[in-house]
Design goal:
The chain is an alpha/beta fold and about 240 residues long. It contains eight helices and seven strands. Helix 7 packs antiparallel against helix 8.
Length: about 240
């Protein structure tokens, strides 16, 4: 469908992985006469770079949250967001099997977006432009906040004198098991939850609010009702 692609930001995390995969596929990565210009630049730079890009070829960006109109004045445009967390290695293998959100205004743009997604190893799906914020918030919770939760867990293991790196096989096990919920809240073991909070208040008080919010959310997922006297309940019995 397309043979010549210019990647703006080819040395970044996403740009380097995409460049490596397109090179594997035998596409020409050039800026002389591109059929598609792919903007792999920070969100804040997309509108400016798009405005400086000559009108004519297809133009796309790879941001998860930035709307389609950031590509004005281009009419041949779409968004392809790889739903993946990229390392600095630039390895194309990071793309394999990941999903890719395609936002497009017409069938032609959607076809090019799907083609690009499949070419670089993604599984494409359509995403409405006005739903990008909710979509990206979900992605951020699942990826960015996992890093935050790991750091919080490591902090408590350090307080207990346990090796914090011991958490990593546990985290991988949760993923490999299909995210099956286990632990005290799934069992309705509120005494253990209260012991958790007691030690958190002593050892890492800055984590108490985070623990309470997550425990209440986990209880809803588990279909568990918190007892009336649980320390997770605030004034009036509301979590």
């Amino acid at each position: 469908m397309i043979e010549r692609i210019e990647i703006v930001g080819a040395r970044g995390r996403v740009g380097s992985a995409v460049s490596a995969r397109l090179a594997e596929r035998g596409l020409a990565l050039e800026s002389a006469d591109p059929e598609l210009v792919l903007l792999c630049v920070p969100d804040r730079a997309i509108a400016q770079v798009a405005a400086e890009t000559p009108v004519g070829p297809w133009v796309a960006h790879v941001s998860g949250a930035t709307p389609l109109d950031a590509l004005d004045p281009h009419e041949r445009r779409f968004v392809l967001h790889p739903l993946q967390s990229f390392s600095r290695t630039g390895s194309a293998e990071q793309l394999d099997g990941a999903w890719g959100a395609v936002t497009a205004e017409n069938d032609d743009a959607r076809a090019v977006g799907y083609w690009l997604a499949e070419t670089i190893g993604l599984r494409p799906f359509a995403l409405a432009d006005d739903e990008r914020a909710a979509y990206h918030a979900g992605a951020a919770i699942a990826s960015n906040y996992l890093v935050t939760l790991r750091a919080a867990g490591r902090s408590l293991l350090e307080a207990a004198g346990a090796p914090p790196e011991a958490l990593d096989p546990l985290i991988r096990g949760v993923v490999d098991s299909g995210f099956e919920l286990t632990g005290p809240i799934a069992r309705g073991d509120w005494e253990t939850v209260e012991r958790h909070l007691a030690v958190i208040r002593t050892e890492r008080p800055e984590l108490e609010e985070l623990y309470v919010v997550l425990a209440a959310a986990t209880a809803r997922i588990a279909g568990q009702e918190m007892p009336d006297d649980t320390v997770l309940l605030g004034p009036g019995g509301a979590a």
